[in-house]
Amino acid sequence: xxxxxxxxxxxxxxxxxxxxxxxxxxxxxxxxxxxxxxxxxxxxxxxxxxxxxxxxxxxxxxxxxxxxxxxxxxxxxxxxxxxxxxxxxxxxxxxxxxxxxxxxxxxxxxxxxxxxxxxxxxxxxxxxxxxxxxxxxxxxxxxxxxxxxxxxxxxxxxxxxxxxxxxxxxxxxxxxxxxxxxxxxxxxxxxxxxxxxxxxxxxxxxxxxxxxxxxxxxxxxxxxxxxxxxxxxxxxxxxxxxxxxxxxxxxxxxxxxxx
Length: 259
Description:
By secondary structure, the protein is α+β, with helices and mostly antiparallel strands. The protein is built from nine helices and eight strands. Helix 1 (about 10-20) runs parallel beside helix 9.
């Protein structure tokens, strides 16, 4: 077990090794992603009471529309406007695994809003602005994130135009990184304040992501019920490389678990 308040360099090295090994024997990226979110959810605690640190942990990967499962294709189509083009190569940020304190948060198919979001959609800037910033930094977005929130401020959280990229911790890193919001309450970067942040006591939000291949990224997001220090958040950066190494242990066309 690791304390989210005191997560050390030695513990970071230990956890990186654990995550790399989670790709062993897996058949699909979904299987590995599921192992990773469960590992993170179970491994981190809050020092004062020993309870789980994270309310929710989610794993996203970007996929072309043509590679989505049929239910996910229908989900994306239902969110698309009548005159908005949806091409086979339209990249969609896709929920691959999820684990949290409620039963429905442990099944990706039960997500009401985040099952798959086209990266070129303003919805991404509205609902997952941290990941949108990460996409922007990695250079795989179709539309400018800044353009979306500046020209459509109603699309951003609380009507605030979100252009501060300090959420992404290392501005010079273009292959893997950490994104971090130390104070989640009333932050324009965190969606669903009334429905999620306040009732479940989310204090900080931490995530990491990286590039798997040209045009494909992954991102892990953790919602913490304990405040996280910036120096602790920095120690999650090597976990991005460990997660990538785990994912690359299966062929990249083996994405979803088949029923």
